[in-house]
Amino acid sequence: TQLLEQSPQFLSIQEGENLTVYCNSSSVFSSLQWYRQEPGEGPVLLVTVVTGGEVKKLKRLTFQFGDARKDSSLHITAAQPGDTGLYLCAGGDNQGGKLIFGQGTELSVKP
Amino acid sequence: GAVVSQHPSRVICKSGTSVKIECRSLDFQATTMFWYRQFPKKSLMLMATSNEGSKATYEQGVEKDKFLINHASLTLSTLTVTSAHPEDSSFYICSAIPLGTSYEQYFGPGTRLTVT
Lengths: 111, 116
Known about the structure:
The complex is a heterodimer of chains A (111) and B (116). With 111 residues, chain A is an all-beta fold. Chain A is 0% helix and 53% strand. In chain A, strands 2, 4, 5, 9, 10 and 11 form a six-stranded mixed sheet that branches. In chain A, strands 1-3-8-7-6 form a five-stranded antiparallel sheet, with no helix packed on it. Chain A is globular. Helix content of chain B is 0%, strand content 52%. Chain B has no helices and eleven strands. Chain B has strands at residues 4-7, 10-13, 19-25, 32-38, 44-51, 57-58, 67-73, 76-81, 90-97, 106-107, 111-115. In chain B, the strands form two sheets. In chain B, strands 2, 4, 5, 6, 9, 10 and 11 form a seven-stranded mixed sheet that branches. Chain B is globular and about 40 Å long. The termini of chain B are far apart. The chains are: A mainly beta (111), B mainly beta (116).
């Protein structure tokens, strides 16, 4: 059974601070996706990484896929209150499009 | 692009009744859709994979006779919670993979089901 361990599960920081969220697995994934979800809404796709070692940037967010495609990280620079939400990583394994989700990281950025 | 809608967004029903939730891909076709359940402040739990024109594939522990899934067209999948009980109260979310792609899932806004 493939598992994706996401950490930390809760993070409360002040505006302007930096943070990193990690997703780790013993399994290789063909793709890794990061989503952000706000209360009462569905997850919104932020980025997809597919190549080992790949780095993608989305404004203040930097996503990295590990060389072996077993882990990924999300780094947010100078966090803002608008970044508050549940961040989910999800790994794809080419089996009919199914995703394996991490436990999620509940981020709270205080002004 | 890649917009998925769900209807209703919220529903309250009495114990023992059935509730149908619709998931539609608005601007793309999808042969595969997924149904998830989410508890407060928790991650998504995959319930089943819905394939257009064939029977859904249910995850271990999910009762297929209780959670009926129909994927009748390339833009619509439905989830019917039969004989609902209070423990079925939850946030149900669907997602869809655009035809011709293989891994990016686009999610609907979710349906909050409350069974009284």
